[in-house]
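Researcher: Structure prediction, please.
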Amino acid sequence: MSLLVIRTSSMGDVIMTLPLLRSFAASWPDEELIFATKKPFDSFVQDIPGVRVFLSDHHGRHRGFTGLLRVWKDICSQHDITAVADLHDVIRSKILRFLFRMGGCRVAVIDKQRSARRKLVRGRLNGSLRHTVERYGDVFARAGYPVAILPGPWIKPSEKAMGKAVSITAGRTGPLVGVAPLARHRLKMWPADKMTEMLRMMTSQNVCTLLLFGSPDETRSIDDLAALVPGSIPMAGMISLDEEIALISQLDLMIAMDSSNMHLAAMLGVDTVSIWGATHPRAGFSAWGMPEENQVQIPDTELTCRPCTIYGKGECRRGDLACLEWLTPEMVLRKIMNKLKKEDK
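Model: Predicted structure follows.
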């Protein structure tokens, strides 16, 4: 018997499945879990006991409706699926789970809390939504596989990638600090001039080695930032995802926006300081396992328009991006230096 788990995007959401996937084998050692995702996200799960990956080729064999039928047939031909946990709940996963339900499988679906999210962005909800990792756990339980989440880290770098990471960090002095300054949406990204100023303040004190992270298509922006921050080392476009995982695992501290790198560092057990703008940790997407004190943000008691978005899409209602502009380099640097001082003790 096998549990099929579906989550094909986005990277941050896939990363947040890892506490459940890694804990599955401990809770259900005699069962098999099939994780349906797409490249390059198989890098996150390749070493997890009891978990096998099914790669969906959205742009090739599995494209369109006929491709979905091939997904269903391919999975059925390789595995005895008895339950499905749909952690995505999009058109493709809806069709796929329907096909498995028609075959007699138990099916459970993620509750995206859409009504509560609307209340949150309209200022009508004072509390916090359940964290995404917890809601994933709810789906596993409804599928018939309750899981006790093991302590982290929840990602383990490959030995080959660790060799690359060790060569990059060899000879570096002081704490090793990673910075992921970008995010997919403008409302989640601290202005570049403020990030530059804060990092220059850090390097002027010669307190650490700075590694700048970003995706391959962010290479130019990361290189431009590195040119303005003496001593910083740009990594975007220089290493594979496997090598990035290994390199982040060696950090003493990660500084990130509300982004996939924030989630990646947290899952690796790296102390992660997150910078928040229009989105909010209360929406259930905070860095899993990180204390609230690691979040840098303007309190929503001061900016009652926060959060104005769940994922970062849209435009600033005020027109001045106060949630990001009011965060000064000194405020962020103070938080970072406090963390680094604790590392030194």
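Model: DSSP finds 13 helices and eleven strands in the chain.
Researcher: Thanks, that helps.
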